[in-house]
Amino acid sequence: MRKSTLLRIGKACVWTALVGWTAFGLWNGFRGTAELFELNRQGRSVSAQVTGLEPAQKGVPSGYIHYAFNDGSGSIDNKFVVASSQFSQFPIGTVIPVTYLPSDPHTVRIGSVSTGRVATTALTSTLFIVAGLVAFGLALVGLDGVIGGKIK
Fold it and tell me: By CB count within 10 A, which of 39, 44, 75, 105 is most buried?
């Protein structure tokens, strides 16, 4: 296979990665920011209680902390991931603050949700997308230079 064909295939792969990165960044960033925005606007803060620890499989450095809280109509169970080394910080019965959405009690975040937290998430999502555009864009510019014969 000729070198120029391989470079064109490489360029197509980088374009695919660029589109995928951008689409994932937009989808994930919008979803996360929108949930936090709603939690900030309509969320309720309550105290949850750790109900169990679920160590990960052997060789995996994280596991789940199970917790529950009462939303006024019943108990809502959920879990979050932590490093196995942090399990000792969450013995069963530990109280942790959570913020949930009354219209969908399974939309929950650990801790409080403030305008600053929403803004930080939006900024992080934007930086994720920009970093990808720059990284993949530089690769595409470099491949164009190689393919176009400008760089030997």
Answer: 39
